[in-house]
């Protein structure tokens, strides 16, 4: 439509538009400067928009992230997907914390603060004043708890899904995370005051049959929502597990095709649970019980975690995933590569199976229904 304007009119409209939108002058000031009335300036601004001299673009980085979230959820059959911006290297203190895997003041690293905050926001959307929240261990979950907004939910309960590693790594071990989450929510907690890994299968089996362990893991299996990290197996093995990843265990994992570690259990690339000598000696929630929790939120990021995340997704263990932009793009690209040649997956199931709901003994109707999203703020 600009072609219908004379050059002089187009120049005038451009000048008025620049004074108003770029320099921020009020219409009265523009009218005084150019010798027109304010209503005339108003009509000029309207004409500038109508003829395309001025265009309006609504844009924010979150728009790009939301598109990634939709693509990620569709590709893997997720109920929820949250993608946070990855801070550029060296841009600020937050970026340096992400780059070096640690945060100032001893807060846990492993994921960026932006990812941790996004995971915390999603967690609270599925929690309420009386919720039972199951948690794993590790740096990622510790970071989420560290950044979680406080609530006053005295009837909420945080419950551990694993035993205690016993290390001094702040907010990475199960008891610290459980206690920290309860403090954030103002509620109670139930940790597992037993070692994460025992020296023998017999010892681990005996401890699993103790009343306190049974009741705690039973509560974790009935939780409303679970938050878990996703560990890779190999060079990026979690510091909490490295002392148990002996040469023999490492070789066993390689022989069995293990690529991921989730809540004390090993998974292969297809998401199948792989029994190993380390898993046999670990005190943790059974993988079938994990599958029955209505909302399981996985939080992980980084190139080294792509295979592990895909394994957890393929196994149907996650109904929600929180990660950063580069990791999300990598996951989406991997899903696209897996599509059959010459066909579209638009009407097909995602690469990984959709999350399975538990329907076994002891499950009431509440366990078969997906949870209503709660947005209560205490």
UniProtKB/TrEMBL annotation:
Please provide an example of a Pfam family that matches this protein in its UniProt record: Sugar-bind
Its name, as the record gives it, is Sugar-binding protein
Provide the leader sequence positions: none
**Annotated GO MF terms:** carbohydrate binding; DNA binding
Q: Does the keyword Repeat apply?
A: no
Q: Does the keyword Lyase apply?
A: no
Q: Which family does it belong to?
A: Belongs to the SorC transcriptional regulatory family.
Q: Which SUPFAM superfamilies match?
A: NagB/RpiA/CoA transferase-like (SSF100950)
**Segments forming domain Sugar-binding:** 61-332
**PANTHER family linked:** TRANSCRIPTIONAL REGULATOR LSRR (PTHR34294:SF1), TRANSCRIPTIONAL REGULATOR-RELATED (PTHR34294)
Task: Give start-end positions of Basic and acidic residues composition bias.
Answer: 336-352
Q: Which UniProt keywords apply?
A: DNA-binding, Transcription, Transcription regulation
Which species is this UniProt entry from? Answer: Actinomyces bowdenii
Q: Where is the region Disordered?
A: 334-378
């Amino acid at each position: 439509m600009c072609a219908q304007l004379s050059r002089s009119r187009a120049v005038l409209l451009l000048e008025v538009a620049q004074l108003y939108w770029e320099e921020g002058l009020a219409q009265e000031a523009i009218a005084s400067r150019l010798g027109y009335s304010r209503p005339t300036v108003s009509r000029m601004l309207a004409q500038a928009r109508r003829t395309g001299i001025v265009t309006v673009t609504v844009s924010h980085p979150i728009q790009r992230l939301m598109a990634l979230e939709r693509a990620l959820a569709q590709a893997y059959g997720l109920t929820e997907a949250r993608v946070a911006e990855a801070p550029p290297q060296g841009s600020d203190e937050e970026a340096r914390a992400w780059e070096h895997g640690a945060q100032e003041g001893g807060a846990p690293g492993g994921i960026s603060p932006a990812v941790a905050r996004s995971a915390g926001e999603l967690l609270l959307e599925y929690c309420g004043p009386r919720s039972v929240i199951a948690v794993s261990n590790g740096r990622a979950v510790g970071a989420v708890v560290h950044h979680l907004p406080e609530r006053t939910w005295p009837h909420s309960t945080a419950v551990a899904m694993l035993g205690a590693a016993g290390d001094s790594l702040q907010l990475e071990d199960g008891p610290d995370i459980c206690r920290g989450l309860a403090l954030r929510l103002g509620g109670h907690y139930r940790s597992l005051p037993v070692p994460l890994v025992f020296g023998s299968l017999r010892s681990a089996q005996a401890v699993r049959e103790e009343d306190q362990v049974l009741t705690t893991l039973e509560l974790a299996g009935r939780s409303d929502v679970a938050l878990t990290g996703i560990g890779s197996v190999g060079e990026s093995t979690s510091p909490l597990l490295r002392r148990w990843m002996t040469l023999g265990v490492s070789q066993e994992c390689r022989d069995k095709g293990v690529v991921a570690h989730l809540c004390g259990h090993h998974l292969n690339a297809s998401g199948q649970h792989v029994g190993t000598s380390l898993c046999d000696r670990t005190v943790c929630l059974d993988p079938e019980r994990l599958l029955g929790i209505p909302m399981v939120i996985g939080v992980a990021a980084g190139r080294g975690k792509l295979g592990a995340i895909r394994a957890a997704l393929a196994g149907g263990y996650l109904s929600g995933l929180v990660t950063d932009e580069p990791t999300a793009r990598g996951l989406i690209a991997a899903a696209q590569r897996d599509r059959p040649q010459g066909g579209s997956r638009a009407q097909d199931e995602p690469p990984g199976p959709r999350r399975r709901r538990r329907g076994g003994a002891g499950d009431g109707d509440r366990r078969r229904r997906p949870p209503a999203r709660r947005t209560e703020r205490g």
